[in-house]
Write a structure and sequence with these properties.
Strand content: 5-15%
Oligomer: single chain
Shape: globular
Distance between the termini: 22 Å
Radius of gyration: 16 Å
Number of strands: 4
Helix content: 40-55%
C-alpha cells in the first residue's frame, strides 16, 4: 500500500463530488465532465498502484509475466459514471464505494469483456473467475 493511498482516494472522491454539485456554466461540455469523472475513478482504483490492487484473480496471482496483467474496474467505469450523473449528490458516497480495482490477466480481461451486461462482481462470476482478497486472504468470488 502506498503511504498516501488514502489521501489520493479521498482527493479524487472530493473532486468527483465537486463536479457533481457545482453549477456548470454553458461553456462546460458534458463530455468533459464525464471524462474528468472517469479519470478520477482511475485515481481511486489505482491509489495503491496499478497492479497492487486489493483484489486479484487466481490467474493474476499466479502470473509471472507482468506484461500479461491488466487493471480492471470491478464496477465498470462507464456504468458508474452514468449512475453518478443521474443520482442525487447524496448517493455519491455509496456509488463511489464501489470504485474498486482488480488485477486480472489479459486473457481474463477478454473473458470479462464478454460479460459486460453484468455489473460488478457478477461479471466475474459469469466469467467463472476466482477472485481473492489479498488483505484477508479469502476468496471473494
Amino acid at each position: 500500500m502506498k503511504p498516501n493511498a488514502d489521501a489520493r482516494r479521498n482527493s479524487a472522491v472530493t473532486l468527483i463530488k465537486i463536479l457533481l454539485v457545482c453549477e456548470k456554466p454553458p461553456t462546460v461540455l458534458p463530455e468533459h465532465v464525464r471524462e474528468l469523472i472517469g479519470t478520477l475513478l482511475w485515481k481511486i482504483t489505482e491509489a495503491d498502484g496499478k497492479y497492487n490492487t486489493r483484489y486479484k484473480t487466481r490467474g493474476a496471482i499466479e502470473c509471472t509475466d507482468k506484461s500479461q496483467l491488466q487493471h480492471e474496474h470491478v464496477y465498470q467505469r462507464r456504468k458508474m459514471i452514468d449512475l453518478l450523473l443521474n443520482a442525487n449528490p447524496e448517493a455519491a458516497d455509496d456509488i463511489l464505494s464501489e470504485a474498486v480495482g482488480c488485477t486480472v490477466t489479459v486473457l481474463e480481461h477478454n473473458l470479462l469483456s464478454k460479460c459486460d451486461s453484468e455489473y460488478g462482481w457478477d461479471r466475474y462470476r459469469r466469467a467463472n473467475l476466482e477472485v481473492f482478497d489479498t488483505v484477508t486472504k479469502e476468496r471473494k468470488v
